[in-house]
Automatic annotation (TrEMBL):
Name of the protein this chain belongs to: Folate-biopterin transporter 4
Subcellular location: Membrane
UniProt cross-references to InterPro entries, sorted A to Z: BT1, FBT, MFS_trans_sf
Family to which the UniProt record says this protein belongs: Belongs to the major facilitator superfamily. Folate-biopterin transporter (TC 2.A.71) family.
UniProt keyword terms in alphabetical order: Membrane, Transmembrane, Transmembrane helix, Transport
Pfam families per the UniProt record, alphabetical: BT1 (PF03092)
C-alpha cells in the first residue's frame, strides 16, 4: 500500500480497518459452528472451510499482478482472508471455552495462558520469517509463502478430534433446557431481586412447556436428527444467548470493554509510515521487531497468571490503561525527537515501545478472555464466546476507523508528519478516558473472575 500503490497513511489505515471487519461479526461463525453441523461434526468442517478461505486469497494475490496492484481488489481479498482467519479463530475459541468450562475457574487462567503462549510461539516464528522475506523475497513470492501457511493449517485438521459420538453428547446437553435455566439463575444473582425470582419461576414453567413440546416432536419424528431441524437449534441458541447476555454481570463489563477500545484512536498504520518514511527504518526490521513483542506477550501472560489474577479487576485495568498511556508518551517522545539528546537510537525506542505495549495489553486481555470463557453456557460456547470477542474486536475496529479519520483531519501524509504528535496526544487522552467508567466493572471481581 505504501510503496507500490502510493496510498496516503489515512487511506491505508482505513483500508486495513475495513479488511479486519470480519473479526467484528464472529457470532455468525459461532452460530454456524454450534447449530448447523456438517455431517454431524461441529468443528472440523468449519476449520477446513476457514483454512481454504485463508489460503486462496494469498495464492490469488501471488499469481495475479493486476489484482495485487488494485487497492479495491486487494482490500476485497484481504476481507476474504480475514473471514477465514476469524472463522478458524471462533472454532478454536469454542474448543478452549469448552475446556475452560469443564476445568473450572481454578485452571481457567492456565488454559488461556497455554493458548496465548502457543500463539506467541507461532508469532515469533512468523515474525522472523516475515523479517527475512521482506528483505530477500519479492512481494508475489511472499504472498505464495503466505498461502503455504494456511495449507499447513488445513492439513492439521486431520488431527482434530470431532467424532459424531461426541457431537451427539453435545446435542443432548444443549437440548437440556434445565442447564439454560440453571445458568440464568446463577448469572442473575441477588442483583435481580424479587423481580428476577418471578422471572425464573416463569422460565421454569415455560421450560416445562417446551420440554413437553419437544417430547411430542420427538415421538412424531423418531428418526429425526439435530441436523434436520436447524431452525429449532438456532432458536434455542438465540434464546440461550439472550438469556446469558442480558445479565448485568455480563452486560456491564462487556460495555466497558467495548467503550475502552472505541475511545482509543488507532493510528498504528500511520506510525508505520512515519517509522519507514521519516525515520528510514527498514520494513524488515519492523517485521523482526515483532519477535520482541511476542516474547513480551509471553512474559505478560506469565506475569498476569502468576501475580495479578487474584487482584481486583478494576485495579488490573487501571494498571493496563495507565501503562498504555505511558506507551503513547514514548511514541510522542519518538516523534518530537526528545530521546536524541540522551543518545537513545530510534530502533531502541521502537523496540521498547513494541515490547511494553504487547506485555501491558495482556493485563487487559487475559481477564477478558477468562471472564468470557467462564460465562459460556453448555452448547453455545462458540456463539457466546464469539459475541464477547466481537464486542472487543468491533470496538477496536471502530477505534481504527477513528484513527484514520484523525489522521485525515490532521492532514498527515507520506511527506507531512508535523501534526503526528498532536494525534498521539489525542490517543493518550482517549486511553485514559475508560478509567472514569470502571464503575461498570463489579468492585469485588478479581482477575480470576470467580
Amino acid at each position: 500500500m505504501k510503496d507500490l500503490m502510493k496510498l496516503s497513511p489515512s487511506t491505508s489505515q482505513f483500508l486495513v480497518s475495513l479488511a479486519y471487519f470480519p473479526w467484528s461479526i464472529k457470532p455468525i461463525y459461532g452460530i454456524l459452528s454450534d447449530c448447523i453441523p456438517i455431517k454431524q461434526r461441529k468443528r472440523v468442517p468449519y476449520l477446513i472451510i476457514s483454512s481454504c478461505l485463508s489460503l486462496l486469497p494469498w495464492l490469488i494475490l501471488g499469481l495475479s499482478q493486476t489484482l495485487r496492484t488494485s487497492a479495491n481488489m486487494l482490500t476485497s481479498l484481504l476481507i476474504v482472508q480475514n473471514l477465514g482467519s476469524a472463522m478458524a479463530d471462533v472454532v478454536i475459541d469454542a474448543m478452549v471455552a469448552e475446556a475452560v468450562r469443564l476445568a473450572g475457574p481454578v485452571f481457567a487462567g492456565d488454559l488461556q495462558s497455554l493458548s496465548w503462549s502457543s500463539m506467541a510461539v507461532g508469532g515469533i516464528f512468523g515474525s522472523l520469517l516475515g523479517g527475512y522475506a521482506l528483505s530477500n523475497l519479492p512481494i508475489h513470492v511472499i504472498y505464495v509463502v503466505f498461502s503455504a501457511l494456511p495449507f499447513f493449517q488445513l492439513v492439521s485438521c486431520m488431527f482434530v478430534e470431532d467424532s459424531p459420538k461426541r457431537f451427539q453428547s453435545a446435542i443432548d446437553e444443549h437440548n437440556n433446557q434445565s442447564s439454560v435455566t440453571a445458568f440464568s439463575e446463577e448469572g442473575s444473582g441477588e442483583a435481580l431481586g424479587k423481580e428476577g425470582t418471578r422471572r425464573r419461576k416463569g422460565t421454569r414453567k415455560n421450560n416445562k412447556r417446551r420440554s413437553l413440546s419437544k417430547q411430542t416432536e420427538a415421538n412424531e419424528k423418531p428418526n429425526g436428527s439435530f441436523n434436520s431441524s436447524p431452525c429449532l437449534s438456532l432458536k434455542s441458541a438465540f434464546f440461550s444467548l439472550c438469556t446469558a447476555f442480558k445479565q448485568p454481570a455480563i452486560l456491564r463489563p462487556m460495555a466497558w470493554f467495548f467503550f475502552s477500545n472505541v475511545t482509543i484512536p488507532n493510528i498504528s498504520t500511520v506510525m508505520f509510515y512515519y517509522q519507514t518514511e521519516e525515520l528510514h527504518l527498514e520494513a524488515s526490521f519492523l517485521g523482526t521487531a515483532r519477535v520482541i513483542g511476542w516474547f513480551s506477550l509471553i512474559l505478560g501472560t506469565y506475569t498476569y497468571n502468576r501475580y495479578f489474577k487474584h487482584k481486583k479487576l478494576r485495579d488490573i485495568l487501571v494498571f493496563a490503561h495507565v501503562g498504555l498511556a505511558i506507551i503513547s508518551l514514548l511514541d510522542i517522545a519518538l516523534v518530537l525527537r526528545l530521546h536524541i539528546p540522551h543518545g537513545i537510537g530510534d530502533k531502541y525506542m521502537v523496540l521498547w515501545g513494541s515490547a511494553l505495549a504487547d506485555a501491558i495489553n495482556q493485563f487487559k486481555m487475559m481477564p477478558f478472555l477468562i471472564l468470557s470463557g467462564q460465562l459460556c453456557p453448555p452448547g453455545i460456547e462458540g456463539t457466546l464466546f464469539a459475541l464477547f470477542m466481537s464486542i472487543n474486536n468491533l470496538g477496536s475496529t471502530l477505534g481504527s476507523f477513528l484513527g484514520a479519520a484523525l489522521a485525515s483531519a490532521l492532514n498527515i501524509s507520506t511527506a507531512q508528519f508535523d501534526n503526528l504528535a498532536l494525534g498521539l496526544g489525542v490517543q493518550l487522552i482517549g486511553t485514559l478516558l475508560p478509567i472514569g467508567f470502571l464503575f461498570l466493572i463489579p468492585n469485588e471481581v478479581t482477575g480470576l473472575t470467580s
